[in-house]
């Protein structure tokens, strides 16, 4: 199964959170903040259903497939510390998330597209894998092409303040430096990681 390409507003409404940040999905969510299909009477959500929603938040927010999420989970279990927190920190360190959090783009899908097309460099080297794990001290720049510089200059001006303390972004130079690795407090997605860990441990 490939990445989700269906109605993004429907996912936002189902999960009760603006997972997809494009303008149309945000407007639709603001108009109808209740889940789709609420015209029908619904049963109380089970514990399994609640945990599934939390897991789906992570998958859609970071653009992960099931096997990728489980791979991160297995890696998080081998790292010393809280498994749920380690899982979220690994997701935050993905290059597509860092490009979005820095302010180069307005959404993660937009960041993924730019990375796959080779628009970004890390420490002067081209990286075309959205899943690339950044490290403290890494410097991200836009490829030195006038059209790309102009594109990301405009996108960064429209992306707004992402409030990311562990990335130092220079909008004039179009550079971002990862000043430190993120902590769990820096995670941008509100999610109950305890339920996700319990779900993935089944």
Automatic annotation (TrEMBL):
The keyword Signal does not apply. Part of the 30S ribosomal subunit. Contacts protein S5. The interaction surface between S4 and S5 is involved in control of translational fidelity. Residues 93-149 form the RNA-binding S4 domain. This is Small ribosomal subunit protein uS4. One of its GO terms (molecular function) is rRNA binding. Residues 3-92 form the Small ribosomal subunit protein uS4 N-terminal domain. GO terms for biological process: ribosomal small subunit biogenesis; translation. PANTHER family: 30S 40S RIBOSOMAL PROTEIN, SMALL RIBOSOMAL SUBUNIT PROTEIN US4M. With S5 and S12 plays an important role in translational accuracy. One of the primary rRNA binding proteins, it binds directly to 16S rRNA where it nucleates assembly of the body of the 30S subunit. Belongs to the universal ribosomal protein uS4 family.
């Amino acid at each position: 199964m490939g990445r989700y390409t269906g109605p993004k507003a429907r996912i936002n409404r189902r999960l009760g959170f603006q997972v997809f940040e494009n303008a149309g999905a945000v407007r639709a969510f603001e108009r109808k903040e209740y889940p789709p299909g609420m015209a029908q009477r619904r049963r109380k959500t089970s514990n399994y259903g609640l945990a599934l929603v939390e897991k789906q938040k992570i998958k859609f927010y970071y653009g992960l497939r099931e096997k990728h999420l489980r791979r991160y989970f297995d890696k998080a279990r081998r790292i010393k510390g809280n498994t749920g927190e380690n899982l979220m920190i690994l997701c935050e360190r993905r290059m597509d998330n860092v490009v979005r959090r820095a302010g180069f783009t307005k959404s993660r899908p937009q960041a993924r597209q730019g990375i796959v097309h080779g628009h970004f460099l890390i420490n002067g080297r081209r990286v075309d894998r959205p899943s690339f794990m950044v490290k403290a001290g890494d410097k991200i720049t836009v490829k030195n092409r006038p059209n790309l510089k102009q594109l990301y200059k405009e996108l960064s001006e429209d992306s707004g303040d992402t409030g990311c303390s562990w990335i130092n972004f220079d909008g004039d130079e179009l550079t971002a430096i990862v000043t430190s690795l993120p902590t769990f407090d820096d995670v941008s997605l509100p999610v109950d990681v305890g339920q996700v860990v319990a779900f993935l441990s089944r």
